[in-house]
UniProtKB/TrEMBL annotation:
<keyword id="KW-1188">Viral release from host cell</keyword>
<keyword id="KW-0378">Hydrolase</keyword>
<keyword id="KW-0645">Protease</keyword>
<dbReference type="GO" id="GO:0006508">
    <property type="term" value="P:proteolysis"/>
</dbReference>
<dbReference type="Pfam" id="PF04586">
    <property type="entry name" value="Peptidase_S78"/>
</dbReference>
<dbReference type="InterPro" id="IPR054613">
    <property type="entry name" value="Peptidase_S78_dom"/>
</dbReference>
<feature type="domain" description="Prohead serine protease">
    <location>
        <begin position="10"/>
        <end position="156"/>
    </location>
</feature>
<protein>
    <submittedName>
        <fullName>HK97 family phage prohead protease</fullName>
    </submittedName>
</protein>
<dbReference type="GO" id="GO:0008233">
    <property type="term" value="F:peptidase activity"/>
</dbReference>
<dbReference type="InterPro" id="IPR006433">
    <property type="entry name" value="Prohead_protease"/>
</dbReference>
Length: 220
């Protein structure tokens, strides 16, 4: 898995007949459908890297990396969230850009979705809510409908692929949200994770956890 995605309702501040628009790609301090909060400042480091690279954050169609439809020349954080100004749809060059424009102008296409990697986060043990404190922004897509975020399953896969192991409560919660019953999740987590986690991160043991997780989770 290359990166995670998170969607919000499309909140266009302007849309010109040339395909330029402004709006928010992410909002701060709101518990989303995936049980996450994006913290203010989460994008600051990533935006600085994009600026130094001289590159523009790509705009994709439905997170399809082979279907770029525009770019985000100006992205900044404000008190509300990640704001994109003068985003440009490539109306003359990308067929899906014209489709996106038609959908956005008729309010048929109603979502923006960021593609990102989690660099730092914290978890409230009482509520189970994740606060995403540092994100590596990869792209911002126009999506037909902002879908329910299924970030928990994706997060544990990302963690394991990076060679890091979840805590026992985190792993059990991931299994519950993947479709296991409470008793099944507890049995799998308590029976398997302590034994497997004795290996070094990134070694054979964490690879085995990832293999088992992919076998048992109901969500691909």
């Amino acid at each position: 898995m290359d990166y995670l995605t998170k969607s919000i309702e499309l909140d266009i501040k302007s849309l010109s007949d040339k395909g330029k628009f402004s709006g928010y790609g992410s909002v701060f301090n709101v518990v989303d459908k995936g049980g996450d909060i994006v913290a203010p400042g989460a994008f600051a480091e990533s935006l600085e890297k994009w600026k130094k690279s001289g590159r523009m954050v790509p705009m994709l169609w439905q997170h399809q990396t082979d279907q770029p439809i525009g770019g985000w020349p100006t992205l900044k954080e404000d008190d509300h969230g990640l704001f994109g100004e003068d985003a440009e749809l490539w109306m003359d060059d990308a067929p899906y850009a014209r489709l996106a424009y038609k959908g956005m102008s008729t309010k048929t296409i109603t979502g923006l979705s960021i593609g990102y990697r989690v660099k730092d986060y914290s978890v409230n043990k009482d509520t189970g809510i994740y606060t995403l404190q540092k994100l590596d922004l990869v792209e911002i897509s126009v999506v037909t409908n902002p879908m329910n975020d299924d970030a928990r399953v994706a997060d544990v896969k990302c963690m394991l692929e990076a060679g890091r192991l979840p805590t026992l409560p985190e792993f059990e919660k991931f299994l519950r949200e993947a479709g296991f019953s409470k008793s099944q999740a507890a049995a799998v987590a308590n029976g398997g994770l302590p034994k497997l986690s004795r290996g070094e991160p990134g070694g054979e043991k964490s690879d085995e956890i990832l293999r088992l997780f992919n076998e048992f989770t109901l969500t691909p």
